[in-house]
Each structure stands twice: as structure tokens, then as C-alpha cells.
Amino acid sequence: MSTAHRLLVTLQDSGFAERDTTGARYELGPRAYQLVHSLFQQFDIRRASLPTLKHLAELTGETAVLDVRVGWFAVRMAGVEGWREIHPGAMIGRTVPLAESVEGSAIFARLTEQDQERYRSWRGNDAAALWPTCTVEAPPVTGSHFVLDPARDGRHGTLSHVIVHESKPLASISLEGTGPLHVPNPPRELLAEVAGVVTELDRLVAANPDLANDPFAHVDPDLIQLMPTPDTAILGDPADVS
Amino acid sequence: MTDTALGSADVPGREDASQLIGNKATARVLRLLGQLADGSQSYGVSELSRKLGMTKNMVHRALATLARHGYVIRDSSGSRYSLGPGILQLGAAGLPELNLPELCAQFMRRIRDTTGETVTLAVPSGRTAVTVSGMRGRGTLARSVPIGRVIPLHISPAARAILAYLPDAAITDYLEQPLERFTESTLVEPEEIWREVKSIRERGYATSLGDHWRGTHGAAFPVLASDGYPHGSITVGGPVERLTPQRLDEVLPNVRESMDELNRQSTVYSSSHAAERA
Q1: Is this prediction's ipTM beyond 0.95?
Q2: What is the pTM of this model?
Q3: Do B89 and A31 touch (CB under 8 A)?
């Protein structure tokens, strides 16, 4: 039996891997996803945002998602799918460098210039080109800004609001879909309703600073690598564990 | 080290030894990861050593391997370990979406085989519960599997097991409208229903009250989402002459064990769909 096969059998026995429906290939098993879920639980903003996400999804019919900043990444930790016939999936777990998604770009835009520079050095590109977005302000709620990437060319639109704690961007709450909110000039009344809902979460975070906890706050963001690299091995070299 | 260095079929005995080493060491690492995922957020080395029955040396080595790849980090105190950001890589392409009937199937089969009775899965839909899958009990006489049956949330164990795990505000909304009565035992008064909800939450399951079909008895357990909302409920039920309350008490521990295991998996997923506002 090859080393790889032995490892796969052990992973399978522990629930970290399983055979796919063809029986010929392996994929991550439920225990692996439980690990991800356990880690999500450590971010209190996730639990706090769930009622807001449900409220937004019910109000608009769009998919409401929470992307949390982890290092230089936006990690989707929660989502509620909308009731519209056609809507995007929640894609929970999706992990993208900050400036490479609308939700992440909204967070990136609220970083200090120093942190934006650090991101560019880390990512190795000069422009750190953000998604083409525009800012909309929802009256009459002062300070309630949204970043909007309208739907076009068969792609859904995204409307994002950044949750900030002590001037640092913590996460973004976004609505994804193709409905009335995702046009260049969304209806003001609907936007105001959405703003009212997200403002409640802003107030909750402001009143409960513990909700902004970051279990990785003590880790240098440059060292947090969430994209697989060619030399990444989940369990390392067998010689290292004996 | 390469496979050859570790051991190969060309070296008698070496392959068995390396196989044992590879499996045991990998299994230790996985057990440690599993422990970090359960319960407390961080652990010290001594604590892990005690809980896992490993020497401190083994724990240190496993932690070192995991830490090298970011799967484990020391907390800010420096003396305790918790899951690290590298874990997020496992879900980076997006976690699989929930297929509730598929997830529940193996547990429903286990419950059916243990009890011999019919097992069904129902999901919430507005003010009702809908039966979406099921496995018929063994023997010629068994409860049916009524796929597509729609029942109000206050009637039958399957529906009440869903109702009880909705948020209180949602239950209040539900009770504001007049409730249908199926039999003289159907609970329709809000106070009665709230008492039953409390009872279900304390027990962890709902039982028959004779409020729907006569002649059957059973118990229904919630299948929960990460936010505590019910994905649905699983009911085991049969003829009351066979599945007496005493018989149900006998089989409940096994059923509960299966449901606990199912809920460990189902709570990975949030209740991901919003209902359209009326």
C-alpha cells in the first residue's frame, strides 16, 4: 500500500476524507468541514450577524452574506439565500484576497493607507486593482455607505456595507443578486430600509466591543496564508511525526 | 524522506512498520485536531496529553507539525493552542451545500434498522412541515411514508419538533392565527402549545399526542442548523400496539445517539434560506 493510500485510509477512518460518489476519488470529509465551522464559531461577529442576514434576505429576496477580514483575506463565514427564483448561492467558506472581490474591496477601502501599502507588498502587485464599484449613500441614514457593483452581463450584482470597529474594518455585509438593488441607481426607499437593518448591527457592535474579537489579531497578517501553495501538505512529511 | 526511505515492499518487514508508523502518527494528529475543534477554544499541552491519552512528547510533535502549516496557533498567552487560520483553507473554495435528505439518509437507515420502525424526514415550509423522504419499517405492518404530506406546525410530532426550535418570535407569530384541530387531542390554545414547546426543548424530542393519526406512536427529533434553527425533523413511528411508550423508551438511547451524531454534521450548515415576507 502506498504512503498516499495509507494516509487516505487513515483520513477516511477519521472522517476527514471520503470517497466521492464514483468511489474512485477522494474528497474532504465532514470532519474537515466541521473544523472550518468550529473556527467560524470563534468569530463572535458571525453569530451576531445571523439575524441581520436573515432579515436582509427576507426583506430583499437576495442572498445576504458576511465576509470577515482574516489577515489580508475576506472569508465568507455566513450567508442566507434569498427567496427569489434565481439567486446566488451563499458560498460559505469562500476565501479571497481582499482586493479581489467586491466584498473584500469594500473592506480594503477602509484600511489605513499604511495597511493598503502592506497589502500591496504582500500581494505583489502595484495597482491592487479593486473591482469597479461605486459608492452609494442611503438617505436619510447618515454615514451609511454602501459599495455597489451592479449586475451585468449575466453576473449578479453586489451591494456591500462595511462593519467597522474602532475605525478598523472588521467585516462586510453584502447583498448579492439581480434584483432592484443591483442597478446603478437603486431605489432610495429600499436602500434606506436596508441601511436601517445594517445600522442596527453597527450599533450592536459599537455597544458590544467583544463582538469584534479577532482570534488571530496577534498574528502578523503577512504570515496568514489561506491560499494553497504547491508545497502545502496538510499533514506535513510523515518523517516529522513518529 | 521518500517512500523508499520510509520503507518499501522490497525490504521485508519495513512496509508493515512504516505503515503502522504512518497511520498511528497521522491518526494522532487528526485526533488532536478533532479535540481542538470540540469544546474549549484553546488547550495546554498537559490538557491535550490527558484528554487524548498521548505523551506530552507526542502532543508537542503533533502540534509542531500542525503549527508549521498554520492549522494550529498559540494564543496570545503563548502557552495554549487553538485552531489556526490554515484551517480556513479547507473550506476556501466554498463549503459543500447542504443536501438534507442525503445527509440524513445513513442516520435514518440506522434508526430504522435499530428500531424496525418507519423513519421519515420533514422540513419546514412556511406554516407547515412537509415530509420529503422516508424509510418504511420492517415487517408487514408499518407506518406509511407519506412523501409530500403537508401538516400544520402544531400538529404531529414531526411538525412540533420543528416548531419548538423556531425563535420565540416566530412561534408567537404562528400562534396569532387560528389553529386547525384534527382530533379532540390537537393542541390549539397558545398556552398549551407553549407548554409543549418548553417540554420538547427540555427533552430534545416531541412525542405523539394522538393529535393527528390514531393508532400510531412515535418520537420526532429536530435536525438543527448552526444558528439553532431547524433544518427539519426526523420521526420514528409505528403501530401503537408494537411501538408502545415502554418500547419507545427502550429504543430512545440508540435513536438519540444517531441523532446526536447527525446534528454534529447538520450544524455545520446554517439554515440558509429566507422565507418570503407575506
Answers
A1: no
A2: 0.80
A3: no
